[in-house]
Amino acid sequence: MVPRQKCPSAGPAIAGGVTLWSKNGEQSVLTLHEAAIELLEASPEPLAVLESFAERITPSSWTGSLANIMQARSRAISTLSKHARPDIAEAAKVVCEKMIQWVERQKEREQREDREREQRFE
Question: How many helices and strands, by DSSP H and E, does the chain display?
């Protein structure tokens, strides 16, 4: 096995294929999958791994509000801002700021589309 400091780009590359999301029991709260957290904690570059995770907050298919799905996934990643490792916590804060902007833009887009749809029916 290659020591992780010799291959720092492996984390983000692997992050693109790891399962990210799981439902938390009866409450049906979306959380980060254990494998994703393990990968993040093993990576020497947590910011790069979290950026790769963040790029996947938009599902390939969905029903209902895309903004709501993105927001739930963003919340799952945002829990890492309280991680015990300061580098992971700080990286999570940086990535969360970006995700908040993406979610807000999607909400605005959906509201605009809803208004346009309502105007067509009037």
Answer: 5, 2
Tokens representing 115? 């208004």
Q: What is the mean pLDDT of residues 61-86?
A: 95
DSSP per-residue string spanning 38-64: HHHHH-S-HHHHHHHHHTTSS-SS-SS
Report d(CA 5, CA 43) in Å as an integer. Answer: 9
pTM of the entire predicted model: 0.80
The pLDDT of residue 103 is 97
CA atoms within 13 A on the CB side of 43: 25
Of 27-31, 68-72, 89-93, 109-113, the range with the lowest mean pLDDT is: 27-31
CA distances from 122 to 19, 112, 115, 117 (A): 44, 16, 11, 9
Paired residues of 24 in beta bridges: 29
